[in-house]
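pinned: reference chain
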Amino acid sequence: MSSGRSGERSGRHSGLSDKTLAALDRASGKLASASIAAMDAEFAWFGRMPADQRASVLLITQNGVSGFAAWLRDEREALRLTTDVFRAAPRDLARWISLRQTVELVRVALQVFERQVPDLAADDKERDILAEAVLRYSREVAFASAMSYASAAESRGAWDARLEALVVDGIVRGEAEESVFSRAAALGWDPAAQATVLVGNSPSDDPPTVVFEVRSRAARLARPALLGVQGSRLVIVLAGPAADGPDEQVLSRIASAFGDGPVVAGPTVASLAEAHRSAADALSGLRAVVGWPTAPRPVRSHDLLPERALAGDPEAEWQLIDRIAKPLEDAGGALLATVEAYLEAGGVLENCARTLFVHPNTVRYRLRKIGELTGRDATDPRDSHVLRTALTVGRLARSRGLW
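pinned: its C-alpha cells
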C-alpha cells in the first residue's frame, strides 16, 4: 500500500501525482506562448523589441516552465535550474531591457502561471499545492533575475575598469590616438571637455577601495573622472575647468582621494586629445617636487618649473624661457636690469635703487610691470626664486645657442 502510493506521488511536494507533473511538462510550450502574448498585450515596448530578443524571452519563459516542473520534483535543483534559465539567454539581452522591465515581464508570466497552472491539477488538493508552489517558485525566479543582472553589472564594471585603465595608460604614455578617444567615449567621457591630470600616491593597495574614494569625491563635485592605479601611483584625469578661483578648489577636494605625500596637477588642457601634455607635466612635477618640501597640496606643475628644470626636464627649461626670460628681454633693458639688480640686492628696494641710480618709486613701478609681464612678483620669496632660475636657464640656453 505504502509502495503503491509512493509510485503515484513521486515529487517532493507530496500530493502531486506523476500525471500532474507530466501535464506540466507537456504544457510548457502553451504556457510560454500565453505568457508572451500577455507581455505583448500589456507592454508596447515589448512589441518593438528585435525578433531575436523576443525569441530569447520566449526561450527563458519555456525554460522557466520546465524548471518549475523539475523544481516540483526536487527543490534542491531550484537555484541551479532557475539560474540556468537566465544563462540560457543571449548575454546581451540585458542591454535591451532594464531590470525594471525584466521584473514587469516576470510579473506578467507569473500571472499567467497563477491562472493556468492550477488547472493542470488532478484534484482540488493538488490545485492548492500548485497555487502555493507557483508563489514559492516566483521567489526563486526573482532571485535568479536579480543575480543575473548583478552578474551582468559586475562583468560590465570589470570591463569598464579595464577600458579605463587602458585610456589612462595611453594618456600617461603620450598616445594621442583615436583608440584612446573612442575608449574614453565608450566610458561616457565628453571628448570636448577640458581635462586636468593629477598624480600622487595611491591611498590603498586595494583597487576597489581606491575606485570608491575617487568616484565618491568626483560625484560630489559633479565631475567625470578617469583613474588608473599604476603600482603605488594613482593617476586621475578630471574633466572640466580647473583654473584660478572657485574651480581651483575642485583640485584641492579631489586631491584628498590620494594617499600621503605630494599631489601634482598638470595644466588644464582644452580636451582629452591634449591630456598627454598635462600628464607629462604632472609626472615631471611629481619627480621634482621633492626639491620643494613646503609645496602646497596639490601643487601645479607650472609652479614647480625651477625644480623640474634642475631635475633635467627640457620642457620646464623652455617654459621658463618662454614665459619669463624672453618676455623680459623683449620688453627692453630697463625691466631686465631692474629684476636682476633687485634679485642681486637680496630684495632690498633701496639698495636696488642705488645700484640703478633711480628713485625707489621707479623700482616699485618696474617691479609691478615685471609682475604683469611674467605673472611673478619679485617681492615674493617663491616667485623671486622662479625669476632667478628662469634668468639663469635663459643665459645657459643662450650660451649653448639654443635661444
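why pinned: Strands lie at 195-201, 225-230, 233-239, 264-265, 299-300. The chain has three domains: 2-155, 190-302, 314-399.
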